[in-house]
Write a sequence for this structure.
């Protein structure tokens, strides 16, 4: 007697079909899939089974699921070697997209303890006059990177007079302020609250966090936190073996 295909069989079959459509570019980058309930009806499975398929595709990086917006085929990712200090506008434009910066807030004040923890500041004290700012980098009007930054006004006094609504902070610093040392700390985080809302991601979505500190002599210049949606960024590194071809040659 033939065995009836169970939910796992349906799950595997649909998963493979969706993967293949994405790989073959039948569903190209940015393509919006039908609603979960509509897909379940089309494929004759329960909504739970279809949710399992879409969740696995998101975990594998084939799609991104956005709260209120739907499910989309993942777009091309920006890549960075571990890890230069790049101009984010260049990263966006390298993807063939239009870059835009939006400043949320910029104040000269003492950072709060929570802000220092967020920025990865390990050794206060912090000067009384620090520019604390936040904003969003967009690619084709989609959130690309959420930035939080503190700039040491004692070291960069010209920053007082900069309109960071029109000047992108990181780019301005690269052009205006030399630095001798930079440190990056990189990890995966799950977003919630205002960060999830600003990035237009569901609560708990995976993101890549880069904490960056630049130093001039013995003074810090800036602390920055760059938060990328996980589906929009990946790190690459290239290494060369120290073994020479001669050392690999067979011995006579």
């Amino acid at each position: 007697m033939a065995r009836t295909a169970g939910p796992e069989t349906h799950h595997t079959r649909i998963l493979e079909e969706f993967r293949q459509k994405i790989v073959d570019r039948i569903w190209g980058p940015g393509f919006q899939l039908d609603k979960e309930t509509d897909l379940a009806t089309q494929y004759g499975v329960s909504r739970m089974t279809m949710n399992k398929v879409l969740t696995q595709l998101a975990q594998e990086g084939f799609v991104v699921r956005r709260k209120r917006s739907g499910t989309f085929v993942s777009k091309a990712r920006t890549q960075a070697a571990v890890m230069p200090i790049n101009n984010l506008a260049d990263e966006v434009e390298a993807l063939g997209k239009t870059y835009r910066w939006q400043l949320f807030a910029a104040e000269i004040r003492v950072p709060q303890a929570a802000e220092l923890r967020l920025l990865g500041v390990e050794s206060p004290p912090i000067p009384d006059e620090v520019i604390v700012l936040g904003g969003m980098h967009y690619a084709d009007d989609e959130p690309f990177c959420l930035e939080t930054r503190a700039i040491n006004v004692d070291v960069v006094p010209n920053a007082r007079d900069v309109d960071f609504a029109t000047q992108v902070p990181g780019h301005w610093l690269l052009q205006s302020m030399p630095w001798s040392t930079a440190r990056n700390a990189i990890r995966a985080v799950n977003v919630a609250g205002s960060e999830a809302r600003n990035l237009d991601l569901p609560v708990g979505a995976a993101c890549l966090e880069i904490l960056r500190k630049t130093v001039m002599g013995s003074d810090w210049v800036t602390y920055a936190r760059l938060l990328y949606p996980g589906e929009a960024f990946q790190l690459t590194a290239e290494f060369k073996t120290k073994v020479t071809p001669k050392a690999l040659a067979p011995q006579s």
